């Protein structure tokens, strides 16, 4: 799905990317007024001329160039003759001009294009991010932004790296749910070296040259899950099962790390089983969980690190042991809400998908404009949600 505010023609479905246009091109509102005293109005306007900040149009007029040319010079884009660049910069310096960002955006001949590389398949949390991006269409249109969803297998490093490589030169910015793997790291670095702004979303690759990470502190999230499981199990002894999507996803690996830390230091009476990898797939997660529950009758706690919650829950309920185990997972979705209300799930570690969607777009836009990132605004919080405080 694409949210496109540009005036360019839509593109057909190609290489997993689907583009369509929403709404009409942005137009500046027309305003008119009839002054009560025309002569007084003219006099006032003359008095204000010296103090009124020069606009982008004024810079273009002084330099004898078009608005688009001024925009290219201000954003250091190629295709402008040195003499023209000199004239524009002299006009800017002469007037101590600070370009108004919105005006500069409107002067662009095309929309900025951002790609969101997301997991394919029925991941409910990722679908929520997709949905929130859809709700931003008016905001995107006002800033001449086009957001394109690119679905791929983020669990396969070769497929993910190839998909990232295919985006080179086509987008101003890329947000990617990333696998921490040398191939993916190299693909991210190549995009950055080519001038594309890259942020990692939900799952980070900190050893890459990505510009920013949007997501929670996953070690803290794992520690929080460990504290919940340990305290809710209480004095009982037994085993604790862990189901992850893939430990190659850094968010999953860090959550498991934090979970293990708390279990080892605070709840040593509980034995951790090796993590299972369900690739965030419902059927695979159900199969693995059912087999594990059948093999270990002394499991007292279950931590689902990623998605695949419907499959994990089905195996747990079908085993008849839903009321005997402490079950903790991630993200408030239609499914986890239902499981919490039923009592089959005890707690959810939540992050706000709307905040993540908005933060990713805002950070990419700030990077594209060369503006500072408001880090406190874009920080994603960890929330604990139980049946009694469901939002």
What does this structure look like?
The radius of gyration is 26 Å and the shape is elongated. It starts with a strand and ends in a 6-residue tail after the last strand. The chain contains 16 helices and 13 strands. It has 391 residues and is an alpha/beta fold. Strand 10 (299-304), helix 13 and strand 11 form a beta-alpha-beta unit. Helix content is 45%, strand content 16%. The chain folds into two domains: 2-24 and 108-214 and 355-381, Rossmann fold (3-Layer(aba) Sandwich), CATH 3.40.50; 218-350, Response regulator (Rossmann fold), CATH 3.40.50. Strands 7, 8, 9, 10, 11, 12 and 13 form a seven-stranded mixed β-sheet that branches.
Question: In a few lines, what is going on in this structure?
Answer:
The chain is an alpha/beta fold and 391 residues long.
